[in-house]
Amino acid sequence: MKKYDAVVIGSGASGLTSAILFSKRGKKVALLEQSDHLAPLLSGFDRLGVHFETGFHYSGILGKDEAGGFLFDELGIDAPVRQCQKEDYDVAYLVDSKRSFRMPLGVQNWIEQLNEFFPHEKEGIKKYFDLVKQTIDATPFLNIHKRHYKNEEFFYFNADKKTLKEVLDECFKTDEIKSALSFSTSLYGTPPSKSSFFLHCCCGAIMYESAWKFVGGARSFVNACKKVLDRNGVDIFLSSKVNRISLKQDLKVLTLDNGQQLECDFCISSIHPKELIKIAPPEIYRQRNLDRIKNTAETPGFFISYAISKNPQKYNISNLAFLKSADFLNDHKDSMYINFSENLPQAVQFSMRVNSNSKQWDMPRDEYKKTKEQMMQKIKSIVNQYRPDIWENMNFVEQATPLTMKRYTNYYGAYGMMHSSNDAAIMPITKIPGLFLVGQAVVAPGLIGAMISAFLLDKMFGLRK
Q1: Confidence of residue 465 (pLDDT cuts 50, 70, 90)
Q2: How high is the pLDDT of residue 425?
Q3: H or E segment at 100?
Q4: How far apart are CA 73 and CA 84, in angstroms?
Q5: How far apart are CA 210 and CA 85, in angstroms?
Q6: From CA 438, how far away is CA 271, in angstroms rounded?
Q7: Best CA proximity match to 444, nearest among 145, 225, 236, 135
Q8: Could you tell me the pTM of the whole model?
Q9: Please, which residues bridge with residue 101 across strands?
């Protein structure tokens, strides 16, 4: 039986960050991943010689003088990033008014462009962006690059439980602008009526000022992390799923699906919380907390169709969304967007939000195939209605459904557990000393939220020393 100071379960952004942080402390660390390669949802895949992104397209605050850049420096990660430019950033086609709104970079640019599109909403636009700034400025983990905080300050979470919908309703009169400003909820999985405004600021609004891509895609981030792991002597176990965590005095014993066992002082789980409570000792949480985790709703899933553009020079944007005023009222249940990569030939991704209910996707193979065909026809109908030139220029090579997601995470939702405004936050510590939880469920979905969750754990160790 191998003995480690720390074992990290799962190699997503939070798992990679946790393994690096513990190894930086001089600990002997093992990193376990059930897939046959690191960070499968971040790394993307190749088809016909073209690379497709899966779990990452862009993120806010990754610049050198921003929180994400600070985290990279702290970890020693040399991941090349570049800032998105206006001409290749998001475009929202506002269906009702038949206008294309190019989402700019820079808060002042947002304000000016929204004022131009919605001149009768100027007062609300100012109020909204003032609230965004106040919330971001008051959140320590989004400002660690600006000032030194006491460790306990990092556990401050905005106490205002207003939903994004409530804030937008207070600020604006027309649903079209509400739909445009709430579309980014599709990128973190909690709809406007359930997302706290605080969560929206941490996930979506941080990209108003700047948005970044990894040069070479998210796999360049994974490769940069791998270099640090190798340099720090972290043992990486691939194709290694944990079946059980048991206790042996003060040690945690992890039994893998191949029968191998690892002992550790600290066990850090970055897998889905519902999966953790299945394999952990029963005393991991109080019963009411166990029930809350079991009953927490999953984020929606996506049906995604991957294509190769026959004319890669034709589109100079990264994303295109078709937005109706009614989308805000129905929580963007049928939201759809198209992502254009920088690859040559160009990889294109058509994503449509769908229900992540397991009953909808546990079906016979023939029925599953038929459902995929129906989804493809629905996407085709939407695209051809507004941009027929796009569809006719594509060579489709692959599809993915919530069932595809389940193969990697054991769940159908795109972002794991939903962060609803009235739910209590899941903290990194458990009732079992030395057993911790990190990942999207702890702070917020997305790259920054996942990485910050590991840093919170690191700060918690600081509190205990």
Answers
A1: very low
A2: 74
A3: strand 99-102
A4: 21
A5: 9
A6: 8
A7: 135
A8: 0.94
A9: 92
